[in-house]
Amino acid sequence: MFDLRIFSIRESRHRIHNPLTERQLAAFGAALDLTAGARVLDLACGSGELLSTWARDHRITGLGVDLNPDFIAHARARADALGVGDAVKFVEADAAGYVADDPVDVAACVGATWIGGGVPGTLDLLSRSLEPGGMLLVGEPYWRTVPTTPEALAGCGVPSAEEFLTLPDLLGSFGARGYDVVEMVCATEESWDRYQAPQWLAMRRWADAHPDHELHDEVRHLLATEPQQYAAFTRRYVGWALVALIAR
Ligand SMILES: C[S@@+](CC[C@H](N)C(=O)[O-])C[C@H]1O[C@@H](n2cnc3c(N)ncnc32)[C@H](O)[C@@H]1O
After folding, report:
1. How many angstroms is it from 142 CA to the middle of ligand 1?
2. What does each of the 248 residues of the chain score in pLDDT, given as a tens digit?
């Protein structure tokens, strides 16, 4: 199990915990033709930016579930700051196996498909909360270039090339499971940088302020190794897509 505290430290200033920018997330939301009052479930919602900004921009209502208490606290504060605290609610809970009490119009898992044991299991999990004809949103990495060396695989933080698909294969896999892909937005190198690089300043500031903390050496190690590793591998090999799906 990963240490949630590391994510709270490195992503303490992030509102979006994935490699899309605010502009990309807003453009994607606008492209979905969301109707006022649409109910959106977001499993592993992080700091809730998708729900809160879409509630502000499209008047959706929503429920976000995440097991990081720091992110849930940020999500509630952000919803209140945007004036949508009545429209979107956030629950601190394990999203693995989470099914909404009442069916929703849109069910999302953006960047955490391990909650369903992978993409197929997450589609099945989300579908259990979905109204017939509703929309699924899934955020998932893919290979821009498939790594062929153990060094490159390790640099991307995965045990094997089977961990991800290429983008055509990922989109094809949705079709093979009975879904139409109806929208998509992909990270760019620049948007990856906006996700990754602010983590380094957050870690540096935290390490300076917590020299005696038990996580200090781990954070210092990440700071010393990650920028070079990111530039050599993740930035080059790994893509990231948020797709919208409707069952056939
Ligand atoms: C890559 S972040 C994505 C967060 C958010 N969807 C976003 O795009 O901003 C992954 C999120 O999954 C959450 N998470 C991981 N495992 C979880 C679980 N079993 N149940 C609920 N949340 C989980 C983490 O706390 C983190 O917020």
Report:
1. 18
2. 568 899 999 999 999 999 999 999 999 999 999 999 999 999 999 999 999 999 999 999 999 999 999 999 999 999 999 999 999 999 999 999 999 999 999 999 999 999 999 999 999 999 999 999 999 999 999 999 999 999 999 999 999 999 999 999 999 999 999 999 999 999 999 999 999 999 999 999 999 999 999 999 999 999 999 999 999 999 999 999 999 999 99
- The full set of domains in the chain, from first to last, is 4-247 (3.40.50.150)
- Which ligand 1 atom is at minimum distance from the Cα of 47? 9
Q: Where are the extended beta strands (E) located within the chain? A: 39-43, 61-66, 88-92, 104-110, 130-143, 179-186, 238-247
Q: Is 71 in the pocket of ligand 1 (CB under 6 A)?
A: yes
What is the token pair recorded at 76? 């509630």
How many Å lie between the centroid of ligand 1 and the Cα of residue 111?
A: 7
- Tell me which DSSP letter residue 59 carries: -
- Rounded distance from Cα 201 to ligand 1 centre (Å): 21
The verdict on the CB of residue 66 being under 6 Å from ligand 1 is yes
8 A C-beta contact, residue 80 and residue 17: no
